[in-house]
Amino acid sequence: MRPASLCEVVERARADGDWDHHLQNFLDAFYALDGDITAQGAMIAEDPGFLGDARPDAFLGGVGEHLARRWRLPFIPAWVRHEARYLDTAMFVPDERNLRTYLLCVSPVSFRPRLIFTGPDPLQRARFPYHRGVVRMPLTFPQGLAAAALFEPER
Questions:
Q1: What is the pLDDT of residues 40-80, one digit of tens each?
Q2: Do the beta carbons of residue 75 and residue 41 sit within 8 Å?
Q3: What is the distance between the alpha carbons of residues 70 and 96, in angstroms, rounded to a whole number?
Q4: DSSP string, the chain
Q5: pLDDT digit string (tens) for 94-118?
């Protein structure tokens, strides 16, 4: 059975360590409820807690905010703004050096402040409701960030 909330994603990930697998199953359940904003809002409303690993904790904050914004839910949960939901070092998904400039430009606003740089719609799945159309993202560099600070020196 798929997780019915981000809280369940974290609970299951604490048990087996596979947060990404549980998140993907959660997204399938979330998208299956497309159009039911009350049910979708309830799926992200409660603070899921932390896994104790900065990257997944920050990514889950981005997920909660992105889903609320992307699906025009009536609120963005307060828990997504917790300081532990933000990284100190940039994370690129995928972590391919030659894609970094592109990812800097197209990352959704819910992920950029967390220093998570990914494709324009990072939560797409086979069950994604494509009838909603594509996301139109501005091709601007995240304000206040220096590009040089995001890249590690080559070794």
A1: 999 999 999 999 999 999 999 999 999 999 889 999 999 99
A2: yes
A3: 26
A4: ---SSHHHHHHHHHHHS-HHHHHHHHHHHHHHTTT-HHHHHHHHHS-----S-HHHHHHHHHHHHHHHHHTT-S---GGGGSGGGS-SS-EEES--GGGHHHHHHH--TTTGGGTEEE-SSTT--TT--GGG--------PPTT--HHHHSPPP-
A5: 999 999 999 999 999 999 999 999 9
